[in-house]
Amino acid sequence: MIKVVKFGGSSLASAGQFSKVGKIISSDKDRRYVVPSAPGKRNSKDTKVTDMLYKCYAMAEAEENFSVALKKIQERYDAIINGLNMSLSLNKEFEEIAENFKNKAGADYAASRGEYLNGIIMANYLNYEFIDAAEVIVFHEDGEFDLEKTNEILSARLKNCERAVIPGFYGATEQGMVKTFSRGGSDITGSIVAKAVQADIYENWTDVSGFLIADPRIIHKPEVIKVITYRELRELSYMGATVLHEDAVFPVRREGIPINIRNTNAPEDEGTLIVESTCRQPDYTITGIAGKKGFVAVNIDKDMMNSEVGFGRKVLAAFEEHGISFEHLPSGIDTMTVFVHQEEFVGKEQQVLSAIHRLAQPDSIDLEGDIALIAVVGRGMRSTRGTAGRIFSALAHANVNVKMIDQGSSELNIIIGVKNCDFETAIKAIYDIFVVTQI
Ligand code: ASP
Fold it and tell me: What are the backbone dihedrals phi and psi of residue 77, each rounded to the nearest 5 degrees, phi first?
């Protein structure tokens, strides 16, 4: 078996956390490839090393003296090294970083040092080979990641390497210019490494025991999702559930490699398994609930709309002209509603309205803001009768007025629109009916 293990910033924030990670890795000889993040926050008031690096580099770029700021970063690493009783010194690396900062090596280079240095410590600590991601993760000149080239180089490099540490988050162009993924991008590196070695599993270790059925800020101690499919995850994450970087799914998904979200602080927990498909029935009819506030419903009315060919296209062209993407598009006989993000829409609303008038000549347009959308997701809904009925009776009992319903034909999700102020009540009512009362 080959396991690729990625550890997030909070799992590597201190010597104490490092030693937990060391135990996790040494407890399973299949954990052969390790992808570390940069040290994260040790407590809620702390700063991530990545943020310290961005700040420090901004000073260098403004030609300010950045030596104190860089020293503070070195202290973070030294505390880890000393706490682990290691004899490693990063002085040489820090001298080189200072020199490169002076020469304006770029913000991506600066941020990447967080993972680079943590990778050196990790490799020494585990006695694994260190592989600089700049040598094996390839980006195009324009900053776009090159999966094909990377896979070729990385799989060849790891073929004869029994155990290695490959720092997350960055790579380089063929000219040697360091580039990073977007924030949280070590998740992507882990997935790329898992693909390159054709791992049996990609374990993503973080500070929670997997995905929760609902947001813990709304539901007290929600249950963990044991198994979720990639499609369900996608439906939930576009509505705001974030544990894993969105782009981390693609490299492994195509290979059929499952991802296991695990908790460094509770390694005995099984976490969440993300799979392509499963015949394991979920514990509940629904797999998860997620949602977001802040949408606008643009209601467009026109007599005989349903027989006018091209009406929908003209309406959507008005949004496209102003660079606004739509979220949902429910329609009636003579009405069509376009749901858009309020934040994106508000500055351009009058231009969009006049564009709709110009292009589609509706009878009237009516706007309703402050709407929240809730996605109720679950592969189990397909085989269960009455799911929608139960959701709506729960909402009616909780006195929540439903503004919109949209069920995709995949029967994987039901989207419900409610007023922003009913958002929390609605989520509680849905969680209650499916999880607490277990029907
Ligand atoms: N260290 C980077 C960040 O803070 C990348 C990562 O942790 O995945 O975003």
Answer: -70, -40
